[in-house]
Amino acid sequence: MADAPKPTSVKLTVDGKPVEVKPGTNLIEAAKQAGAQIPYYCYHPRLTIAANCRMCLVEVSNAPKLVPGCQTPVAENLAVQTRSARVKDAQRAVLEFLLLNHPVDCSICDQAGECKLEDYYMMYDFKPSRLEGGKVLKNKRKVLGPLVVIDQERCILCTRCVRFMEEVAQDRQLGVFGRGSHEVVDIFPNKPLDSNYAGNTVDICPVGALLSRDFRFKARSWFLSATPSVCTGCSRGCNTYADWFNGVTYRYRPRENEAVNKSWMCDQGRLSYKSLNADRVEDARLGKKAEGKTAVFEQAVASAAEKLKVGAANLGFLASPVASVEDLLAGFALAKQLGLKTVFVGGRADGASDKILMQADKNPNRTGLTQIAKANGFEVKPFSALVDDINGGKVRSVYAVGGEVPVGARDAGVVFSKLELFVASATNHSELTDEAHVLLPAATHVEDHGTFVNFEGRAQRFVKCYPAPGNAKPHWQWASAISRTLGGEAAFKTAAEVFAALSTIVPELKDFDWQKAQPRATARKGSLHPLSAGGDGRPAGYREWMEAR
Question: Residue 488 in contact with residue 337, Cβ under 8 Å?
């Protein structure tokens, strides 16, 4: 006898509203599809079920007792109640229990403003504590590792962090120790939390127990704006939020993308935001650092154009795979106009990699650079070949898009000091840019719109967070202005115009819908960003959604 076909969907009601979901879906996810919210702490869709916080208890028609929504699968014709009197009593009881020994120090907590304990207390409890006597005291500031510190009094023992380290990072560095009210999350003796993915435990901590030592006490979450962006720490291109205020980026957090990084990012990428703020080139400079003078945009463009025209005979073109597709399209167009047929690839040196997310190539757009070079008919050579050509006298002038090089900036500066002409657009000062005869201040990826192509060939858009500091401009703007001065027709006003005009010759990019691919909210302006930060439906803080400028 043949087996009966397995059902492809299950019908149930949530608070009286019919909904149809896939078999095996738990009640929390089914309720979301029905437009209802079941509160939870320990549940995370990418981790195993612990069912230990009991915040998600709901009433169902096939059981006499309340059941945890995270652990209970849907059943045909099941009736689920998420707002009954029994459920509300249970939610209040759970919150009272969780807050029994909690210090309630929200005014000094870094998680304030994006804390689920704070939110749920206001939504489901809002009652004073009935505790008589003192609270159980635990360690308020225990450093677990280079990036993470724990306040054990705030911890509600949801064990998300413990399960993440074991199941995702595959490095069991956290555990639950002690018994009863004295249970704590902690590291093992003499074994710090030093995983390259430790920062994710801070992201998924639903309360203010696990905190980032890098971000701690730097900014209040409600002052920050969160803009969807892309990490530039390696060629993976993890989707991120750049959290910023007043022209300064304070942190990166992972943004969910099932195909690229799921809900996670590595700590190396997480901390790569610091180069956005430190030692930036803010003004154009004519002359080397020692004798250079500040110039306005028109002076810098005219000087660069005149010098490149004179030095074109022995000119080399250096392109950085840290620059965006739009920057490189305009840079290659200028190099082509100058009669060049070879591109030397700079960028960061290779580094460590792992089997989770981190790639050895520390450049976010090497694939994009290679695609653009090939489409423009350029021969691609490594940076070492440029060094050889400069030392051999074959190249006496260099035009560079980006100041990143795979060797030490000091060593590169020694080599480039031999050049008769060095025109560079760069984001950060270094011993290499000190040698530039014309230094053009460039914008970073959070200061303009653009595209990166990751190591898998996936083109990903990022959007502008805030204006570039000082007189910095995107690489493409400097390149197109120099091109116009030299008689070219480039008249681009935006990165979108650069992409539309120059990407058509790149087979891999010609069908890419630049506007449609832009990560942006579909909700009305002023509402919470609809994209969850940790894959658990938790909003990315109470920040306004900034429309791309």
Answer: yes
Which residues are paired to 142 by β-bridges?
Answer: 150
Q: Is the pTM of this model over 0.85?
A: yes
Token pair listed for 295: 């110039």
Give the sign of the dihedral formed by CA 390, CA 396, CA 401, CA 402.
Answer: positive
* Residue labelled with tokens 């790149």: 506
List, as own/partner pairs, every contact residues 304-309 make where C-beta atoms lie below 8 angstroms and the sequence separation is at least 24, other chains included.
304/423, 304/438, 304/440, 304/478, 304/482, 305/482, 305/485, 305/486, 307/397, 307/421, 307/423, 307/437, 307/438, 308/338, 308/397, 308/399, 308/421, 308/423, 308/482, 308/486, 309/486
Going through 6-96 in order, the beta strands assigned E by DSSP cover 10-14, 17-21, 57-60, 67-68, 78-81
> In 103-134, which positions are buried (b, 16+ CB within 10 angstroms) versus exposed (e)?
beebeebbbebbbbbbbbbeebbeeeeeeeee
The whole-number pLDDT of residue 198 equals 98
Terminal-to-terminal C-alpha distance of the chain = 65
87, two tokens: 């459920």
**206-223 residue pLDDT tens:** 999 999 999 999 998 888
Q: What is the pLDDT of residues 33-69, one digit of tens each?
A: 999 999 999 999 999 999 999 999 999 999 999 999 9
Q: b/e per residue, 18-47, with b = 16+ CB within 10 A? A: ebebeeebbbbbbbbebebebbbbbbbbbb
The 10s digit of each residue's pLDDT in 236-282 is 999 999 998 889 999 999 988 999 999 999 999 999 999 999 999 99
CA distance 380 to 321: 12
Answer whether 508's CB lies under 8 Å from 514's CB. Answer: no
Burial 387-404 (b: 16+ CB within 10 A, else e): bebbeeeebbbbbbbbbb
CA dihedral 155, 157, 160, 162 (to 10 degrees): 100
| Ordered DSSP codes for 346-411 | --PPP----SSS--S---TTHHHHHHHHHHTTPEEEEHHHHHHHHHTTS--EEEEE----SS-HHH
What distance in Å separates the CA atoms of residue 154 and residue 101, rounded to the nearest whole number?
8
